[in-house]
Amino acid sequence: xxxxxxxxxxxxxxxxxxxxxxxxxxxxxxxxxxxxxxxxxxxxxxxxxxxxxxxxxxxxxxxxxxxxxxxxxxxxxxxxxxxxxxxxxxxxxxxxxxxxxxxxxxxxxxxxxxxxxxxxxxxxxxxxxxxxxxxxxxxxxxxxxxxxxxxxxxxxxxxxxx
Length: 162
What we know:
alpha/beta, six-stranded mixed beta sheet, four-stranded mixed beta sheet, 10 strands
């Protein structure tokens, strides 16, 4: 397995939009209504499927914290390693019974645990995309977030209030 190191820019943005669910998500959501899949995504021009090196750590943490949630890790061709406090979660599918704010709360708890060992002054930066079914209208949606842990906490609070 190949490792790649990447340097990336920082922003504080999120976007939620309707998403035309493809067959892979529909099958996953139907077969794993309370599950999570970390999806390998194309990397660079080669389109080789990749996951970040954090993916396995998050899977192990989630299985320990919430053993009733089925966690799948799609096998990548390469692992991308980030040498910073950036937390790249990549692309997630969450099952139709898992509510988005609850899932994001789990990611926030993971960030808290991960940052306990960080050097003073280090601030985590989160990058993730989540494909999910909105429970209010039954529509498949896509959340893209790129920002610091404080902005992530504000997003979770906004989503919990509706």
